[in-house]
Automatic annotation (TrEMBL):
Keywords for the protein's UniProt record, in alphabetical order: DNA-binding, Transcription, Transcription regulation
Gene3D superfamilies: 3.30.70.920, Winged helix-like DNA-binding domain superfamily/Winged helix DNA-binding domain
UniProt organism field: Pseudogemmobacter lacusdianii
InterPro entries attached to this UniProt entry: ArsR-like_HTH (IPR011991), AsnC-type_HTH_dom (IPR000485), Dimeric_a/b-barrel (IPR011008), Tscrpt_reg_AsnC-like (IPR019888), Tscrpt_reg_AsnC/Lrp_C (IPR019887), Tscrpt_reg_HTH_AsnC-type_CS (IPR019885), WH-like_DNA-bd_sf (IPR036388), WH_DNA-bd_sf (IPR036390)
Ranges for domain HTH asnC-type: 5-66
Domain of life the protein comes from: Bacteria
Name this protein carries in UniProt: Lrp/AsnC family transcriptional regulator
Length: 153
């Protein structure tokens, strides 16, 4: 369920998405308010779950994780036990950056970040040793054109 936000809330969120390390004074100045109301609104948005967490965004290439694969998974298994094992396997793998269940011909799509193709193969072999998968297609991203954590407000 969407939370009702006013223009000031959206301006504050926009500033936090740009740089959550800004001081309250800086955010207040940029949004045209004062420090206390900005702090109160941030606290309220945290309490309402609008701000889920504050984290650092790391550069994967700087850390040697140069290969990004999009993995398309089709399964013939739809039982609760299979799904539980599959979801557990995904959650335990730090290489899996995102996982989505899809409508259509493909059941799941994963975003997997690894060092290279060999590391992807190790990930793949480990995954299929834990759960039966009908079909897997891995697509290597040649170039990241846009990647953002910024939501449109």
């Amino acid at each position: 369920m969407a939370v009702a936000l006013d223009d000031l809330d959206r301006k504050i969120l926009s500033e936090l998405q740009k740089d959550a390390e800004q001081s309250l004074d800086e955010i207040a100045r940029r949004v045209g308010s004062s420090k206390t109301p900005v702090w109160n609104r941030i606290r309220k948005m945290k309490d309402m779950g609008v701000i889920a967490r504050t984290t650092a965004i790391l550069d994967p290439e700087a850390l040697g994780l140069e290969a990004c694969f999009f993995v398309l998974i089709r399964t013939s298994e739809h039982e609760a036990d299979w799904q539980r094992k599959f979801l557990k396997a995904l959650k335990e793998r730090p290489e899996v950056m995102e996982a989505h269940r899809l409508a259509g011909d493909i059941d799941y799509i994963l975003k997997v970040r690894v060092k290279n193709a060999r590391a992807y193969d190790q990930f793949y072999q480990a995954l299929i040793s834990e759960v039966r998968i009908y079909n897997v297609t891995a697509l290597l991203s040649m170039e990241e054109i846009k990647s953002t954590t910024t939501l449109p407000l």
